[in-house]
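pinned: reference chain
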Amino acid sequence: MLEYILNTTAIWLIGLLMFDLFLRRETFHNYNRVYLLAVLISGVLIPFWSWDSNDVVYSSGITQPLLNSTATLKEGITSTGSKTIIPWSSVLWIVYLSGVGITTGRVIYEAIQIIGLLRDGTKKTITGKKIVSINKAISPFSLFGHIFIYNADSYEVHELKMILAHEEKHVRLLHTIDLIVMRTVQIVFWFHPLVYLIENRLRMVHEYQADNSSRVDAKTYGKFLVEQSVLGAAPTLSHSFIRSPLKKRIMMLTRKTSRIAKSKQFFILPFAFITMVCCTQTAFSDDGPQKDGNKVTYRGNVIEFSEQPPNDTTWVEDPVSGELSMAIVHSQPMPLKLNDEKIYNDGELSFQNNNGVYTDNSSLNAEDIKRHLLKGLEKELKALGDGKYSFAITNIVVDKKGNVVYFEYDPISTIYKGMFTRGPGKSVTKVPVPKIDEDVAKAIEQKISHLMNNLPKQTPAQYKGKNVHSIGVWYHEKFAIIDGRIET
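pinned: its structure tokens
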């Protein structure tokens, strides 16, 4: 989430800086309107776009730790009597949703005000335009094809024509749609100051566009604007006749754009390139795992691990000679928290309705991973050549939304010299241990990263009836390549 907000901020900030430096004082208002809307929408959407990072986290070992069910159950029992602590993430969500509620409430309140003005006002049609004469002393404004004017009968004919021409331009150019988009983004990003700066620029461009509809000289039109400025402000959901700095609007009426100034429009091209490269979810920057002590940052998430378990030993039998030898086993640290929220393991999710505590693991299982990986890896695996191989995916974390957000990879490796039958009735041929080409291994790693990061959404784990982060499934694949075929 933090990465998304930073990328959104970068897009909006760069867009606004370029607008203020190169476009703000120019008269190509149609272009400026499209530009500002593009900046706004790009800031919302582009950070979701990923260039498909191929970085994976390598596992420190392939031995799956045994989960101590007794210790886990004891932890679950003792935790029920402990004091409940609300995590900071929950507090932040409460604050954010409160802001969303307040912003939405303000929009609804203004909408009710406008409906009241429409209901109580005197409606009539002048030269095909829907006029609502209201008794509230606010500036003329337009919304959804209706033009609201305070005491419309008090205006002289030429004054009314200026107002109607101005507001009709807002209606014809569908400026209300821009405001709806703007207000929707403001509800979601109510906390972001750049949203309000973009709105300020966009409303100013709207007024420039509408002012161009005036058929009177700039001096007369400017004087009329100043006279109307004594009226109160119209609702922010609408376009007010006197909104935006009047001095700038009057100056813009007489401003001319040179050919050199028109070339500034092409600055949008490098801006688009910069934002796509620098502000996507992964871009071309290093999105690989960043380790800091017992924490790893991966694809915008922070995973906290347990301490490194001590090494163990085990007896290993050589599959060719049958001799036994002692081997050191390196156990992996276990993911404990995802973004400061607990990750539940198999032991904690293996019982249901125990003393009223309902649990259930995520729907992700090894068979689903196998189907997903082997189908997508067919081309890369066949490039290995005949032999027997294995790889493993461990420490797979499924977040409470059902997304696989972390995993570790034990690289592709050969198993041993094997005896492979070449078909019914054919002789048995010994196949030597093949050497894995580095480019092939890299291609497999990249494809596994892509496939794991794009696993279908799962049903998340549940603890006490609430969705939680979980770790449980481990995937270890052994397969053979025989005559270019994959056999598992």
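why pinned: Residues 2-51+88-278 form one domain. The chain has 14 helices and 22 strands.
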